[in-house]
Structures are given as structure tokens and as C-alpha cells.
Design a protein that fits this description.
6 strands; about 25% helix; binds flavin-adenine dinucleotide; Elongation Factor Tu (Ef-tu), domain 3; single chain; about 25% strand; alpha+beta
């Protein structure tokens, strides 16, 4: 391999998506899971490398600049207030762009990314704000002494920027209706 070819190979290797470590998976069955996102990004990288065209990787960057929550990539949200409710429980408020709402349905959660002692961790949290709350969302979090993400969360203060993706999960619910899926099989 010539010097040029090996420099090119190194360039491509630097752009290759990194396989998530088990600590990054929040374990709550997200769709897509971080491993699905990795598989998608890897396929995109393999296509771009085969065609020697780095512009084919641009779509991923454009999406992560979007200020709205989405399940595939993490989006930055600013902490607008921190309220301590009990010795170990805190309510955090985040700004949403303009007057937008998360519009989560019943039981849906979002996934937080944090880095603790150099280790990337992901955990699920269920917003408590009304689904049509405009311009903000809130989460109520119990912080554990030995908890990895808890250590990171306890450092948050107004103005900090943290990364969320979602929504995931939820229950099918309509007032005064019973879901056929929830009835026992005979
Ligand atoms: C779908 C979903 C939604 C969730 N929504 C919320 C939410 O809205 N608010 C919220 O506070 N949490 C919520 N959780 C829990 C959250 O995802 C984390 O598990 C929690 O914050 C602990 O993470 P950690 O990294 O700090 O602790 P870890 O590092 O994962 O755990 C380390 C230690 O912390 C303690 N610990 C951790 N979790 C628990 C627990 N559940 N009970 C007792 N001890 C524990 C234990 O001592 C454990 O050994 C949700 C989880 C799921 C799956």
C-alpha cells in the first residue's frame, strides 16, 4: 500500500462509527436502540467508503444540528431550572425551541447521555410535564449515591447543556376503551 493509500485508509478509519459499549445501552428496549443506530451509521459509512465519497456521511451531521428531539441522534437541551424536592430527588426543567412541545404519549420515555469518569452512560427518564407544555419539558430524578448517571446529574445547574434522544416506548391508551392486546388469551 502506498503512503497516500494508507493515509486515506486512516482518514476513513477515523470516521468509522464506534460500536457502543454495554454501559451505553439503557436496557429499556428503545426502538431504535443505540445498537440499531450504530448498525445504520456503519452501513452508511461502508457505503461512503466503498464510493470514496465523504459527503455521503453529511446527513448524520445535519440531523444532529436539529434542535428537536429525535430517536436516532442526541439533541442538546439547556437546563433552565433545578429544584431540589427531597434529599435525593430533583426536578429539572429544560428549554424547548420556540413554543414547541415534546408531545409524548402515555408512558413514553427519553434517553439521556452522560460521560462519567470517561465512560459513556445512557439511562431512560420519563418526563413529568404535560404533553402539550409549550417551550419546556421537565423530569423528576432520584439520584443514587452509587449511581453512575446520578453522579453526572447531580452536577447540573441552570445553563448547562445536556443531550437527550427519543421518544421511546409508551402504552396504547384511549379513554374508556380496552386494548385487545391487553386482554388475556383464552
Ligand atoms: C423506561 C424507564 C424510565 C425511567 N424513568 C425514570 C425517571 O423518570 N426518574 C428517575 O429517577 N429514574 C427513572 N428511571 C431509572 C433511570 O433510568 C436510572 O436507572 C436511574 O437514574 C439510576 O441510574 P444510575 O446510572 O444513576 O445508577 P446505576 O449506575 O445504574 O446503578 C448503581 C446503583 O444505584 C442504585 N440504583 C440504581 N437504580 C435503582 C433503582 N431503580 N432502585 C434502587 N436502587 C437503584 C443501586 O444502588 C445501584 O447498584 C427510568 C428507567 C426506565 C427503564
Amino acid at each position: 500500500m502506498s503512503d497516500n493509500e494508507s493515509a486515506n485508509e486512516e482518514d476513513w478509519l477515523a470516521l468509522r462509527p464506534q460500536e457502543p459499549s454495554p454501559s451505553q445501552c439503557c436496557g429499556s428496549g428503545c426502538k431504535p436502540c443505540i445498537y440499531d443506530v450504530y448498525e445504520k451509521e456503519l452501513a452508511q459509512w461502508e457505503r461512503a467508503k466503498a464510493m470514496q465519497d465523504k459527503s455521503l456521511l453529511m446527513g448524520k451531521k445535519e440531523q444532529s444540528n436539529n434542535s428537536e428531539l429525535n430517536p436516532d441522534t442526541f439533541t442538546a437541551f439547556s437546563v433552565s431550572s433545578v429544584e431540589q424536592l427531597t434529599e435525593d430527588t430533583y426536578q429539572y426543567k429544560f428549554e424547548l425551541p420556540g413554543n414547541s412541545s415534546l408531545h409524548l404519549s402515555l408512558g413514553q420515555h427519553i434517553v439521556l447521555r452522560g460521560v462519567v469518569n470517561g465512560l459513556e452512560v445512557q439511562r431512560a427518564y420519563t418526563p413529568i410535564s404535560p404533553r402539550n407544555a409549550e417551550g419546556y419539558f421537565e423530569v423528576l430524578i432520584k439520584c443514587y449515591e452509587a449511581g453512575l448517571m446520578s453522579q453526572y446529574i447531580k452536577t447540573w445547574k441552570r445553563g448547562d447543556v445536556v443531550f437527550w434522544r427519543g421518544p421511546f416506548g409508551g402504552f396504547p391508551y384511549q379513554p374508556n376503551k380496552v386494548s385487545v392486546r391487553s386482554l388475556p388469551k383464552r
